[in-house]
Each structure stands twice: as C-alpha cells, then as structure tokens.
Amino acid sequence: MTEAAEATQDSWAIVVNHEEQHSIWPAGRELPAGWNEIGFTGDRQACLDRIATLWTDLRPLSLRG
After folding, report:
1. Per-residue DSSP letter, 11
2. pTM recorded for the entire structure
3. Per residue of the chain (65 residues), what is the pLDDT tens digit?
C-alpha cells in the first residue's frame, strides 16, 4: 500500500502473529497468512495508540520466557 493510499484509509484493524507481534492492517482486507485480528478497529492513530498499550515487550514470544 502506498503512502497516499494509507492516508485515505479510514479504518484499520490491529493484527497479531504467532510471535505476538502487533501491526495494523486495512480493515476489511484479507489478512496475510499468519496474522489474526484481535478485535480492535479504528483510525490509524487510535490503532497505533492501542498497540502502544498492549505490546509493551517488543521481543518476539520465542525470545521471552
């Protein structure tokens, strides 16, 4: 997705992979393999703000513990 397309995208979803790494993805688009929605959607900044509160340990799950 280009920066111009990202700027016009209204709704984003928070997604997480098997390593518990978080990202945002355009809401309504098919997810890439290995990623799942967590049930939070909103504008880009709201999703990034939510990720900041959820994902406090940035190490992949396999390196934690």
Report:
1. -
2. 0.84
3. 566 555 568 999 999 999 999 999 999 999 999 999 999 999 999 999 999 999 999 999 999 97
CA distance 39 to 35: 12
How long, in residues, is the chain? Answer: 65
Residue 62 DSSP SS3: helix
Buried/exposed code over 28-38 (b: 16+ C-beta within 10 A; e: otherwise): eeeeeeeeeee
User: To which H or E segment does residue 5 belong?
Assistant: helix 3-8
Q: Which regions of 1-65 does DSSP assign to beta strands (E)?
A: 12-17, 22-26, 35-42
With 0-12 / 13-18 / 19 or more C-beta atoms within 10 angstroms meaning exposed / middle / buried, residue 13 is buried
